[in-house]
Specification:
The protein contains six helices and no strands. The protein is mainly α.
Length: 130
Amino acid sequence: MSFSNKLYSFRKQKGLSQDELGSKLNVSRQTISKWELGETTPELEKLIALGDFFEISLDELVMDVKAKENTKTESLVMNRFETIIDSIDRENVKMYTKKISKIVLIIMVIILAIDLISMIVYFILNGFPV
């Protein structure tokens, strides 16, 4: 819904004529009419006054509701996407850590086996020390 349509709706909900709303904002009836027809847009100070008068935020007054909902949906999707990426990253780190641990363990077993084999060969060639 456009600003002009919203302004018209909010004014009607309050049961005000264009003249009554104009007097509350210190503008003419014609100015309110031009805003509602979309011919002109109010200055920032008048937008703030309209928001205060209708007790709504400026976003609600000037932004399209669908655009606001899309922004919320995009934000939720991005948060979910980031959560999934973080989860995948944690899983990758766990898998990488496990692989490194296995490699280190295999290297240690190989070193121990070489050490044992060299000790056995030494004792066979030189005999047991007495």
